[in-house]
Write a structure and sequence with these properties.
Elements (H helix, E strand, L loop, with lengths): L5 H19 L6 H8 L3 H7 L3 H29 L4 H13 L2 H16 L1 H22 L1 H21 L5 H8 L10
InterPro entries: Homeodomain-like_sf, HTH_TetR
Keywords: DNA-binding
GO molecular function, one term: DNA binding
């Protein structure tokens, strides 16, 4: 990072906050931890962010953006071969819950949103986005059901510290996956 590049410094601070939220949780985030991780002077964290809450919110926003990137990948997968939407959906969801960072970021957003309405919109990005992605393939009510199961699978993976078994995930969502022509 260039020494006098404010945008790069700010981006490094936000990235450090996001990484630390995933590693230690949003409640344990401190200016000192972020500064150390970002390799910036401690005063930089307060120069760019008026409060720790603002810094935490920016870190959570970055994590939400990463989740949106995952949704884009799922959308692309489903669009590639709509006839294989069911298999692709199971594969995509299993891949998502198999990445610890995805799982922890999602749960951190959800937990924070439970008590902070400003973060709620960020947390809903996964669920609402997944419903939006799935609706053209399996219908709105089935998409909502799959999104709820996905939320549960994410929490399950976070608590257990390991991915949900692909076969178990497939079994849970199978009743809600109907090919477009059979709706």
């Amino acid at each position: 990072m260039a020494r006098h590049d404010p945008q790069a410094r700010r981006a490094a601070i936000v990235q450090a906050a996001a990484d630390l939220i995933v590693e230690v949780g949003p409640g344990k985030l401190t200016h000192r931890l972020v500064a150390t991780r970002a390799r910036v002077p401690l005063g930089s964290t307060t120069a760019y962010f008026a409060s720790l809450d603002e810094l935490r919110a920016e870190g959570l926003a970055l994590l939400a953006h990463e989740i949106e990137d995952e949704l884009h990948e799922i959308r692309t997968e489903l669009a590639t071969d709509p006839g294989a939407a069911a298999r692709r959906l199971i594969d995509s969801l299993h891949e998502y819950v198999s990445v610890r960072r995805n799982v922890v970021a999602d749960v951190a957003l959800t937990a924070t949103a439970t008590f902070d309405e400003h973060v709620r919109e960020l947390a809903l990005s996964w669920t609402d986005g997944l419903v939006d992605v799935l609706t053209p393939h399996i219908g709105a009510s089935n998409a909502v059901a799959v999104a709820m199961i996905s939320d549960g699978a994410t929490v399950h993976a976070a608590i257990r510290g390991e991915p949900v078994d692909r076969a178990d995930l497939a079994h849970a969502i199978a009743p809600f996956i109907v090919e477009e022509e059979s709706r």
